[in-house]
Every structure is written in structure tokens, then in C-alpha cells.
Specification:
Radius of gyration: 31 Å
Helix content: over 70%
Strand content: 5-15%
Largest sheet: 4 strands, antiparallel
Number of strands: 4
Structural class: alpha+beta
Oligomer: single chain
Shape: rod-shaped
Length: 300
């Protein structure tokens, strides 16, 4: 146990000293990783937010079911409620719809309007709230097949646009991540390589006294991992500040903006998951970059 602690103490000290000696080269690597993880984190967070907003729109969106003339909505409503995708219904009788319509048209004499048309031209309607946006098309198909249903309508254009936006963001996130990951690995690798070259004489002395290759180059690999961890922590702090600023900005906005703001809030799991993803991703990038850097020297 004592031997293990001694080795661990040596590795940590060498890694820390290496970080101190690196100077501006270290900052170049950390800055590159920070930019990568910041853009990746913002893209990932935005993707989560758009996905949540998509589900929120779906849960708020109502499918309008118009019945055939003479069919009562009260008789059909129990069938609608038994559909698994349905979370709520609201019956609007043709009398209620007609009264609302004539008021919106500014007609004060409702009885007179009824006499002129001889009968109410409208039909009963059932407003159906879907479980989420993804089930709406399937739900509309099921509703249209019910006996007595004339027309099923729902506004799907907004949902389609949000879904396309979500898909586009995922592709943009993937593209940005790949490009910046390769860049961060390259910068980290170059930085570690320069540090190794600067300490070439120390490495040669360690080789002469019998130090193994793994023992010599492990501190450099840990330095690369440290670059990624530091970059992830800095990126997460920036993202947190921006998120807090946006939340404060939207807190006093109108009701619709408040609705959007609620959709932009991350879940507690996502709040905990984001820094773990950033730090882990950064550590992986630093590890790969440092391994590329020391591989050539280790073979030589």
C-alpha cells in the first residue's frame, strides 16, 4: 500500500510540475478543448431543450374532432377517452359553438340569427389532447375511424418545423463535434509533444537509471487528461452563466414566452449529466491526444 501511495504521489507531482512548466502551450491546449466542449455543450443542451419543447408543444396541442350532423359528442367521448394516446378531452356542443360564433361576429340578436338560418348549421366538436407530439398523426388516424366522426384537424406545421429543427441541430452538433474534436486532439498532441521534447534530457536520464517507458510517459498522458478536465470545467461554467442569464431575461416576459421558457428548462438529470459529459469527453480528448504524442517517443 505504501509503495502504491509513493508511486501515486510521484505521478501527481510530476503531472502538476509539467502543467506549471508548460506555460502558454498548456493554455493553448486547454483553450482549444474549452472551445470544443463549450460549443458541444451548447449544442447538446439546445438539442435537449428543443426536444423538450417539442414534447411540450405536443402535450399542449389539441386535435379537433368534428362529428357528423346529428351525432352527440357526449355519446362518442367515452370511446375517445379509451384511446391510449389521449390524455384529456373537452366537449363543445354545437349550441355552445354557435353562441360563441355569433358573439365573435358581433351579432347581438342570437335568436334572430337562429330563425334566419332555421337551424344551427354547426356540429358537435371534441377537443382531444394528445400525450405528446409524436403520437398525434397516429391518434388522428384512429379518431377519424371512429363512427360518427366527420373531420379530424390538427395544426402539425409547427411541430414539423420544430422536429426538422431538432434533426438539423443534431446533424450540426455532430459535424461541429467531429471537426473540433480532431482539432483539439491535434492541439493537445502537439502541446504534449513539445513538452516531452523540452524535457528530453530528463527523460534520457530516467532511461539510464532504468525507469520503464510507462513510468516515464504516464505523467505526460495525465497532463493531457488534465487539459480535457480543465477545459470541460471551464466550458460548463460558461454554459451555466449563459443559461442563468437567459432564464433571468425570460422571467418577466409575456405568457407565451414563459411557456417557451419552461420548455427550455433542463431536467434535474440533464443538469447533473451535462457537466459529467463535458468533463468525461474532455478527459477522453486529452487522453487520445497525449497518447498520440508520446507514442512516437516511446517507440524511439
Amino acid at each position: 500500500m505504501l509503495k502504491f501511495l509513493t508511486k501515486l504521489d510521484y505521478l501527481l507531482k510530476e503531472t502538476f510540475l509539467g502543467l506549471l512548466r508548460g506555460g502558454w502551450m498548456n493554455w493553448a491546449a486547454v483553450s482549444t478543448v474549452t472551445v470544443l466542449l463549450f460549443l458541444f455543450g451548447m449544442s447538446l443542451q439546445t438539442s435537449w431543450q428543443v426536444e423538450k419543447l417539442l414534447y411540450q408543444f405536443g402535450s399542449q396541442m389539441e386535435v379537433a374532432v368534428y362529428l357528423d350532423s346529428g351525432i352527440s359528442a357526449a355519446n362518442l367521448e367515452p370511446l375517445v377517452k379509451h384511446i391510449p394516446e389521449v390524455v384529456g378531452t373537452q366537449v363543445i356542443t354545437k349550441e355552445e359553438a354557435w353562441t360563441k360564433l355569433v358573439k365573435e361576429l358581433g351579432i347581438s340578436d342570437i335568436e334572430g340569427a337562429n330563425q334566419q338560418l332555421e337551424e344551427n348549421p354547426l356540429v358537435d366538436e371534441i377537443k382531444v389532447k394528445a400525450r405528446n407530439s409524436e403520437v398525434v398523426p397516429n391518434l388522428a388516424t384512429k379518431l377519424a375511424k371512429l363512427p360518427g366522426v366527420s373531420t379530424v384537424q390538427y395544426v402539425d406545421e409547427v411541430l414539423k418545423r420544430i422536429a426538422h429543427l431538432h434533426q438539423g441541430l443534431n446533424w450540426i452538433t455532430l459535424t461541429i463535434t467531429i471537426i473540433l474534436t480532431l482539432t483539439a486532439i491535434a492541439v493537445t498532441s502537439i502541446t504534449i509533444r513539445l513538452i516531452v521534447m523540452a524535457r528530453r534530457q530528463e527523460i534520457e536520464i530516467m532511461q539510464l537509471v532504468g525507469a520503464t517507458t510507462a513510468w516515464i510517459y504516464l505523467p505526460f498522458i495525465l497532463q493531457g487528461v488534465a487539459f480535457g478536465v480543465f477545459g470541460g470545467a471551464i466550458a460548463w461554467s460558461f454554459i451555466t452563466v449563459i443559461q442563468q442569464f437567459i432564464s433571468n431575461l425570460l422571467s418577466n416576459q409575456p405568457e407565451f414566452i414563459q411557456f417557451l421558457s419552461n420548455g427550455l428548462q433542463l431536467t434535474p438529470v440533464q443538469i447533473l449529466l451535462l457537466p459529467l459529459i463535458l468533463v468525461s469527453f474532455g478527459a477522453a480528448v486529452g487522453l487520445i491526444g497525449s497518447l498520440f504524442a508520446v507514442r512516437r517517443f516511446a517507440r524511439g
